[in-house]
Amino acid sequence: MEAVLTENPASAGTAPGAAIELSGLGKAYGRGEHAFAAVRETTLSVPWGQVIGLLGPNGAGKTTTIKMICGLITPSTGSITLGGYDVARQRSHAVRQIGAVLEGSRNVYWPMSAWENLMYFGRLKGLRGSEVRPRARRLLTDLGLWERRHETVGSYSRGMQQKVAVAAALITDPPIILLDEPTLGLDVEAARTVKDWIAHLAADDGKTVVLTTHQLEVAQELSDRIAVIKEGEIIADLPTTELLARHAENRYEIRVAGSLDGNVGGLPAGARVEPDGSGTRVLLPDADSATVYAVLDQLAAADQQLVSVAQARPSLEAVFIRLLHHAGAAPTPEAGGEGTTP
Amino acid sequence: MTMSLSAPVASTRGSWVVLQTRLVANETGKGVRLMWRRRSMVVVGMAMLALNYLGITFFIGGGHVVEPLMVETLPALLAVVLASTAAVQGSGGIAEEIYGGTLEQAQMSPATPQVQILGRIAALAVEGLAGAVVLGAVFALGFGLDYDLHPAALVPGVLTVVDALGYGLLLAALTVRIASIGAITHVFNMVVMFFGGMIVPITVFPDALETFAQFVPTALGVQAVNTTMAGEPLSATWSDGTLPWLVVHAGVLVALGLVTYIVNIRHAQREGGLSPR
């Protein structure tokens, strides 16, 4: 029998080492010719307090990975530790490190009230009622549900239901939060509320967050680090800023005061000149640094006052699509610092 | 980065037994709350069963209630109420939780699957017994049935409850593996209804049918209850083989249900079957 409650798992929240360690993690469904590898040899280390975005197309293996971390799907190979606890061998400790909102699920009992749900999920993790009540009160108040806490969750709007799911995941104040498509199906306002909460959890509460979403702007805004999964393999794993920097395009934007009025001739082929308020914007769609300097020299020679020079940064969406279609050209993880790619 | 853990994460005190008891109680409490939310459906289900029973009783009695027959078949009706409640609500509850994703959430707990299912079964016992007690009182008082509530009936009575819950547990356990369990559950419930002694006591069945009926959940228990309520001592149910086979039947059903549940949960974890398939 596995030992239960022999030490305070809260201490694991400040334990040295990584919050989440995936080592050679793999999952295959079926056998023989019909075997399908959903996740292949994934190794990943997520430090405490980091928000990692796990991105990939449908069927890439994100949800399977998340559910293996939660202990809901048994891996075919490899191991997972949460706060130092092995999910397979120290399950009761490991599961108390996490709270999860899973994709496409209600996650909570709709026929029960928000209050009853939070009390149930708190006790489910081994807490006493007296320990759960103050936290439930705080969560419901913070999420704006306190006044309607005794109404059944089924009578709530979709956004409120998702708030209850988030609150249930947080009721034991776990140091690690796993959010699988937490804004799926929410309207703009509800999605914004959930997104703000995730940001709050990371910034103010120091939670370690694993986030999967198809809304790449959400991932870009929230994630310290991005791992892109394709066909069960991590093809890129870098801090978000570095990932974007590595995919910075040879596209420059030069702003000058006033108009050019034909003062500058011989701009490179494809260059565009556009008015920009009281100034002018020169766009160089495909330029190396020598070309940029040459243009700057021309502008200086024409006495044009330079306002700014910027290299265009792609959106995460553009990088994501590029990575999926050119997996071979993915950023090397060694330079990424924290991440590793199999 | 330092962690902000202002609220307790988990209890550190308390023995393993105390914790497991709390976890079972938590599951039971949830089950009872969910039952209360759908109480109107529970009442309608009980009423339909009672009307069926009444209709069958009138039919067999040629348009009259034959009191001596009702005295022997009413315990079977109460056993059917308990067994069918445990089976339908047990398997339906699991199916609903798979669909809603709450079965997955429940697995992220220090509570083992067997602890959780015991809590669920306890809730089903509350629901089934409440219905059985109400129906029993309505029929006994309504038709002025004369029962000798001999204490010896308590033993087979309790074993019948365990037998019925074991049956519900087994069907709930199968639901984790078999998505379309609903039809199977109804077929089994019909078997329990027809061969469990609700229509006529199984002692009046032809020999082969009586032998078959003794394998049907609750049938042996009802037979033993009827024997003791007729004034026979408990030893009589032991010597005629009813009680020992009832003990074996109830024990096997509960053990089979628990093992099936654990095996199916593990299978679901291997195959990703804890969420909608």
Automatic annotation (TrEMBL), chain A:
Molecular function (GO) terms for this protein are: ATP binding; ATP hydrolysis activity
Q: Does the keyword Transport apply?
A: yes
Q: Which domain of life is it from?
A: Bacteria
Recorded family membership: Belongs to the ABC transporter superfamily.
Q: Entry's SMART domains?
A: AAA (SM00382)
Name the Pfam families on file: ABC_tran
The Gene Ontology CC terms held by the record are: plasma membrane
Keyword line? Antibiotic resistance, ATP-binding, Nucleotide-binding, Transport
Q: Would I find Secreted among this entry's keywords?
A: no
Q: What is this protein called?
A: ABC-2 type transport system ATP-binding protein
Question: SUPFAM superfamilies given for it?
Answer: P-loop containing nucleoside triphosphate hydrolases
Q: How does it sit in the membrane?
A: Peripheral membrane protein
Q: Which GO terms describe its biological process?
A: response to antibiotic
Compartments reported by the entry: Cell membrane
The residues covered by the ABC transporter domain are 20-256
From TrEMBL, chain B:
Q: Which organism is it from?
A: Haloactinopolyspora alba
Q: What's the protein's topology in the membrane?
A: Multi-pass membrane protein
Q: What is this protein called?
A: ABC-2 type transport system permease protein
> What parts of the sequence cross the membrane?
40-62, 74-96, 117-141, 153-175, 187-205, 243-263
What molecular function terms (GO) are annotated for this protein? ABC-type transporter activity
Q: Which UniProt keywords apply?
A: Membrane, Transmembrane, Transmembrane helix
Show where the ABC-2 type transporter transmembrane domain sits.
Answer: 31-227
Compartments annotated for it: namely: Membrane
